[in-house]
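Ticket #4471: structure export looks truncated?
Reporter: QA, pipeline team
Priority: medium

Steps to reproduce: submit the single chain below to the structure queue and open the exported record.
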Amino acid sequence: MTSTLDSICSSARVIVACGTGGVGKTSVAAALGVHAARAGRKVVVITIDPARRLADAIGLDGALGNEPQRVSVDASGELWVTMLDVRETFDNLVKETSPTPERAREVMENSFYRSLSRSLSGTRDYMAAERLHGLHNDPRFDLVIVDTPPSRNALDFLESPERLARFLKHPVVRLLVAPSRGGLRFASAAMTPVLKAISSVVGSDALTGVAAFLRAFDGMETEFSRRALAVASTLRGSDTHFVVITAPSPDALKEADHFVSELSRLGIQLRLLVANRMPPRFGSSTSATEHVRASQSTGDEAALHSLLASLYEDAEQAEAGVDAFVQRTRTTFPEVPLASATELAEDIHSMDSIGVLAHQLAVAKPQL
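Actual output as written to the record:
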């Protein structure tokens, strides 16, 4: 059988890895990168999670930032890694879209911009999409793998580009940046119900700061919108593949159901399920068989069969839970393939262990 990873890693331009915390999502994202690099591709794995999970998983001692770093891997292709820096990405975007260096400085020195660029909510979502846009168009790479945060809201960044484009076209935004002979039409705020309402909530000083930011920003919104819509199109393109990663625990499977439903709501095709951290199988016996053998034995032999029965029970329960999840998923995404990997003896903290995980995921298995 052909590995499910082969077709995905050879055809995708973008792979988005989704999953809750504790399922090994970051390690799987890195393993997908290793597999693609072994196939000769030039891969960059970006984590949009502020934690150091990616650096820890690959055993990188130094700081991991916005600029991709190449990782040594035994492959004909290349593997690079990077971690989203919201402030740096936002600053670079302002510099690239500003008509002059002076306008860029005016924006970046604005108090509202400084607060906005340090935000870890909506701004992070949009900057993640913007960073994906940059890496997708970087000639150094032919595959970008996105390691999303371990959160139920991890897919918010998929909708952030359209939200930004809508915001920039909102009449209130245009009103705030519209120039007049006396500068902004801010004198009309007291007579404009919308602006008066905003001012009563955020305060006149805050509204003045926002207006000053938007005035400095005026003329740059066209390029912001263009890039936002371009990355939105990329995320929904046929060469962007979404992968949902789970583990056999009930909580992880419940969260995986959530991610599947979110992809369905967004009209995005799911390309692969990964069941990670599965209990290992020891031979082809069953828990029922081992219980019988234990009852028919004595001493150490009985204890051994009892232990094997317990191990088989763990594996059988895990497989039953994953099987039920796969069947639920296939009511929405028929015939979505499954790859799996067993729990390793030690935590993943080196490229060697990432390579072992990549090998497990690449082994073709009969479909459930």
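Status: closed, not a bug. The export was complete when the record was re-opened. Leaving a note from the reviewer for reference: The first strand starts at residue 14 and ends at 18.
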